[in-house]
Amino acid sequence: MDNDILNFLRKQRTMILSTDGIKIWSTKVYYSLYSGIIFFIEKTGLTLSNIEKNNYIAYEIDNNDLSIIVQGNGRVEILGLPVDHTSERDVLINKNPEDRRFVDHVYIARLIPVQMNVTDLRNGLKKYQETINTDELAE
Question: Which fold has domain 3-136?
Fold first, then answer.
């Protein structure tokens, strides 16, 4: 994976997930890199219900000034409760302390990207597909 994009993913903190199972839904989550892209997901939310019916999702990560946009799709696996996945929980909370308040109400999920498209607008328009190696996806 390109170091520039890997560093970009490490620096950003939120992504938008789009799911479709019961009905189409998008949500913004804090994330961290840990053998994929890990995030908390509400135990009783529509996002979880959608993923349980269809774990193939779309995602988007940007830096809010849209100089780099990473978009793609992949499969989500629900890992379980944060208390049972302390390594993942600690990585998430270390990067995103705001997530601490949700720990009792969420599961930890992991996105395994299948496709990652990059739009780089820093020096003109450059679009390409990134090669994904989940072993490199680490903070």
Answer: Pnp Oxidase; Chain A (2.30.110)
